[in-house]
Write a structure and sequence with these properties.
Chain lengths: ~110, ~110
């Protein structure tokens, strides 16, 4: 079984809709991250959480919100989706004090 | 994090060693060199990291020059499944906020 799972894997939605992307991990890591990737570009950090009570904005948090429901779960919400949020979204986890981040398989989101 | 420079693309014949270079001339003493790869549209995958000694694991070897200004990732027997974009990153331990992947090297393993 995969250590980091994301649901859904693909989603098509319309402008203005609220969307939630979910991430679960079985690695026992405290740190979790949400990134987005646009074609031909690197990953950009949206939000990160170092533990259940810790939430931090990343480079591009506008238009997004997150919820850390438990150590193993970190959800990303688009409050009112817009077309330029069409992208590949990745969740990642890491242990404390190391830079080995483990990524999920990604969610391909299309906003029409 | 120190800036890293990698070639845009490389080809390698299947079964041969793939040697991927990375320059990090401004790396500081407490920054490690990390390598990740991303196979098309999949999540990035951690490969290996090192500080100043050469490292080897089941996936690859990492050779870091004595002055630490450059390094080489070696895939000893490349397969078609190793075709991916490879990223070299210099980071301090504990600096786990964001991974800056840059543009990386597109490695194409040819049959």
């Amino acid at each position: 079984d995969a250590d980091v799972t994301q649901t859904p894997r693909n989603r098509i939605t319309k402008t203005g809709k609220r969307i939630m992307l979910e991430c679960s991990q079985t690695k026992g890591h405290d740190r979790m991250y949400w990134y987005r990737q646009d074609p031909g570009l690197g990953l950009r950090l949206i939000y990160y959480s170092f533990d259940v009570k810790d939430i931090n904005k990343g480079e591009i948090s506008d238009g997004y919100s997150v919820s850390r429901q438990a150590q193993a779960k970190f959800s990303l919400s688009l409050e009112s989706a817009i077309p330029n949020q069409t992208a590949l979204y990745f969740c990642a986890t890491s242990g404390v004090g190391n830079n080995e981040q483990f990524f999920g398989p990604g969610t391909r989101l299309t906003v029409l | 994090d120190a800036k890293t420079t990698q070639p845009t693309s490389m080809d390698c014949a299947e079964g041969r060693a793939a040697n991927l270079p990375c320059n990090h001339s401004t790396i500081s003493g407490n920054e490690y060199v990390y390598w990740y790869r991303q196979i098309h549209s999949q999540g990035p995958q951690y490969i290996i990291h090192g500080l100043k000694n050469n490292e080897t694991n089941e996936m690859a070897s990492l050779i870091i020059t004595e002055d630490r200004k450059s390094s080489t990732l070696i895939l000893p027997h490349a397969t078609l499944r190793d075709t991916a974009v490879y990223y070299c990153i210099a980071r301090r331990v504990g600096s786990a906020r964001q991974l800056t992947f840059g543009s990386g090297t597109q490695l194409t393993v040819l049959p």
